[in-house]
Amino acid sequence: MELTVQDIVAWIEKANEKMQANKKYLTTLDQEIGDGDHGINMARGFQEAADKLTENDYPDTGAVLKDTAMTLMSKIGGASGPLFGTAFLKMSVAAKGAETLDHETFKHGLEEAVNGIKQRGKAAEGEKTLVDVWAKMADLFNRETDFSADKIADEAANAMEQTKDMMAMKGRAAYFKERSIGHIDPGSASSQYIFAALADIIGGK
Ligand code: ADP
Ligand code: MG
Question: 2-11, 57-66, 79-88, 139-148 — which is least confidently predicted?
């Protein structure tokens, strides 16, 4: 795996397409166990990030990821904005000065992203948050070095599905206690789109 600056820009553009296409669905998920703004938040944040990236030239992958992080951090809003911002910021630090991202660097960046989200959200795996998808993706990149794009997409979809049976322990959904069981976590669903977009880019779609 070798991601160029152009690949990262394409990744964010693809993720944005998915956020726009699934804005209503993400909002519906957040209406079940939250306040119903997640689709609006993600669609706004990723649109701003995609616009920003196409307006600029970047010297290395770290710089693209950093601009993405800053935009997501300030434009998504809600509880999830700082968390997605932190994830991309941690990846940008790992990618600092790297013209291309190889498997090793990406793996390290993902690990740091997971640590950053956990720390910022004071969240652990199994608490029905976006941590459940990001941690599973870091595990995948740690476990295997040679895998197909489909594997990334499948793993992300599985991780998202698994949040359905969990009871929410963090964020607004935690107020629903047992009633949060049976619903997919909105932040896990949007995270799944981010990794499905990555799979599209790696798979050359
Ligand atoms: P808000 O909850 O402020 O309305 P969003 O609706 O945009 O923000 O985002 C909700 C998502 O954020 C949840 O589905 C969950 O995945 C994630 N989330 C919320 N609080 C936390 C936390 N403390 N740690 C990790 N993730 C969290
Ligand atoms: Mg919300």
Answer: 139-148
Please name the residue whose Cα sits nearest to atom 13 of ligand 1: 187
DSSP string, 8-76: HHHHHHHHHHHHHHTHHHHHHHHHHHS-S-HHHHHHHHHHHHHHHHHH---SSHHHHHHHHHHHHHHHT
Residue 115 makes CB contacts below 8 A (sequence gap 6+) with 90
Q: Which ligand is nearest to the CA of 186?
A: 1
Which stretch of DSSP H or E encloses residue 7?
helix 5-21
The preferred substitution site among 26, 72, 80 for testing ligand 1, maximizing ligand atoms within 8 Å of CB, is 80
> What structural domains and CATH numbers belong to the chain?
2-203 (1.25.40.340)
Q: Give pLDDT tens digits for 164-191.
A: 999 999 999 999 999 999 999 999 999 9
Q: Which residues have CB under 8 Å from 190's CB, separation 6+? A: 19, 26, 38, 42, 80, 130
Q: What's the number of CA atoms in the CB half-sphere (13 Å) around residue 25?
A: 13
Ligand 1 pocket member 132 (CB < 6 A): no
With beta carbons less than 8 A apart as the criterion, state whether 65 and 95 touch: yes
